[in-house]
Design goal:
Helix content: over 70%
Largest sheet: none
Strand content: under 5%
CATH architecture: Orthogonal Bundle
Distance between the termini: 31 Å
Number of strands: 0
Bound molecules: fe (ii) ion
Oligomer: single chain
Length: 201
């Protein structure tokens, strides 16, 4: 038995040209490079951790598929799809691009795998009960080589030396400290994710 899902491998192969075409047409060069880099980094982490790297690669490739959608439309889709909304989502709908992205990946690209969808859904705010693959995508988004070295390097070191969960906790803490420094509101999903991680690591 291969240690990967054959259907996902096929799905990645079939979808890659379409996704890359969409990326080239609709996102800036900087974002294009970021997305490819997240996909590559997620693949690398997954391989190292013995996880299905095709799932990681596909999830990384789609993680920002709703990034260019305007705030108003993000809110509209979120309501349509019955995504649970916090007051903060109304104030900063941009945060919804991850959760809406998972819905788009489902609808537009026919993705059904919970790990692939989870990686897209959780990559910005995290959430409790994340799977290992979902955490890999979260971490890849925060630590791909294009990210500021000051934040990314300790995450890359942590995943190597302390493991995935500790690295994700560190990434969450970085984000929270940044939000606090800017005197901005903290999304409850991130607090829940952090409390969940602390309950077992
Ligand atoms: Fe994103
Ligand atoms: Fe991203």
């Amino acid at each position: 038995m291969p240690d990967y899902d054959k259907n996902i491998k096929r799905q990645l192969k079939n979808l890659r040209p379409e996704i890359e075409k969409w990326l080239k047409e609709s996102v800036s060069e900087k974002r294009y490079n970021h997305i490819l880099s997240v996909s590559k980094t997620a693949k690398k982490y997954a391989k190292r951790l013995g996880l299905d790297h095709y799932k990681a690669e596909l999830s990384g490739l789609l993680h920002d598929c709703a990034k260019e959608i305007k705030n108003e439309q993000l809110l509209e889709i979120a309501k349509q799809k019955n995504i649970e909304l916090d007051q903060l989502d109304y104030e900063t709908p941009h945060l919804l691009h991850a959760r809406v992205g998972a819905e788009i990946a489902k609808e537009k690209y026919g993705i059904t795998d919970p790990d692939v969808l989870g990686g897209i859904r959780c990559h910005t705010l995290a959430e409790p009960e994340m799977t290992k693959l979902t955490m890999v995508v979260y971490l890849a988004d925060a630590s791909e080589p294009g990210r500021d070295r000051k934040y990314a390097a300790p995450l890359r070191k942590a995943v190597k030396e302390k493991g995935l969960e500790q690295a994700v906790l560190l990434a969450i803490d970085h984000k929270l400290l940044d939000v606090i420094k800017k005197n901005k509101k903290i999304h409850p999903l991130t607090i829940k994710a952090r409390n969940w991680l602390l309950s077992f690591i």
